[in-house]
Write a structure and sequence with these properties.
The chain is an alpha+beta fold. 23% of the residues lie in helices and 28% in strands.
Length: 316
């Protein structure tokens, strides 16, 4: 179990969506988060003249993962000034400097922090990096490295509370570890009342366009950026793919091994325990128009017996 901690957030403008100054008791560091449009108003703060690291956050793709640029500087103001002129993608930023009386961070420390944050972002695989190069780990003495690792630990604890989870390694919120539907017994989840309309729901059917279906559903044995109701997370054991036009049919099903958070907007990635297998196909048929514009819940039993998509989604 992680140690409990308290952070303090000061909002100098009175706008919780504006500038936020973040610190912790008994920590020499200080974080400042701000929207891009506030930069030229807040850049005169003394903290931005200090040695530190910074993260620019924005979006460049439509897959729900943020794009990050991680940097450092002896005086971070000049670096962010440059990015405000040359980098269009970022929407907000967060910086970290030291408030220690002796100056705290030096060039070696921030170079190591930049390296560690880039490495962490790459291993977490929850963002796209705008950094062109992957730096090598710089040499630090044993004592300096221990101190800098301590500073990094504090930074990583603050970032999710500032709204950035891209450095957290995904932790499964559900681990059904389902087997192939051809060999699995169909058992109603114990949390549902017997005979209720949802007592057999264990499958999510997702619409998939050709490229994503081939590259991700079949190629990666996974499906991502799905919005699933929190109450459904422990129930999902299978995922089926409805291929959009021109196929317009449910064609494959896979058992789910784990469900993990994906991106910053409450969506999930489903990882399969086995490669997807062909099923049906189950054509759209006479289903209601728009029935497969988003994920739909059903059961593996319905999936096995359905003649059309309408059989999957109609209430019993």
């Amino acid at each position: 179990m992680a140690d409990p901690f308290t952070i303090r957030v000061f909002v100098p403008d009175g706008d919780p969506e504006g500038v936020r100054i973040i610190d912790r008791l008994n920590w020499t560091g200080l974080g400042i988060a701000f929207p891009r449009e506030h930069w030229f108003r807040v850049r005169t703060r003394a903290e931005f003249g200090k040695t530190g690291v910074y993260i620019l956050v924005g979006h460049t793709t439509d897959d729900d993962l943020p794009t990050l640029y991680i940097g450092q500087g002896d005086g971070i103001r000049n670096r962010i000034d440059e990015h405000a002129q040359k980098k269009d993608f970022w929407e907000w930023a967060i910086t970290f400097v030291s408030n220690a009386a002796n100056g705290g961070l030096n060039r070696a420390h921030i170079t190591w922090l930049e390296y560690a944050l880039i490495n962490r972002a790459q291993s977490a695989k929850r963002s796209h990096l705008d950094n062109g190069n992957t730096p090598q780990e710089p040499a630090l003495s044993e004592a300096e490295k221990a101190d800098t690792q301590g500073f990094l630990k504090e930074v990583l604890q603050i970032l999710p509370l500032a709204g950035l989870r891209a450095f957290e390694r995904p932790k499964a919120v559900a681990t059904p570890m389902a087997r192939s539907p051809e060999t699995s017994a169909i058992v109603a989840p114990p949390s549902a009342p017997a005979g209720s309309e949802t007592d057999d729901v264990d499958t999510v059917v997702v619409p998939a366009q050709k490229e994503g279906f081939e590259e991700v559903f079949l190629g990666e044995n996974a499906w991502r950026a799905i919005r699933i109701a929190r109450g459904m997370l422990p129930r999902i054991k299978y995922i089926a793919a409805y291929q959009t036009q021109p196929i317009s049919a449910v064609t494959h099903v896979a058992p789910v091994a784990a469900i993990e958070p994906y991106g910053e907007s409450g969506k999930y990635m489903l990882r399969f325990s086995e490669p997807a297998q062909p099923i049906g196909p189950i054509p759209f048929g006479d289903a209601t128009q728009g029935a497969m514009q988003g994920p739909r819940y059903t059961s593996i039993a319905r999936l096995r017996s359905a003649k059309t998509v309408a059989d999957l989604v109609k209430p019993r």
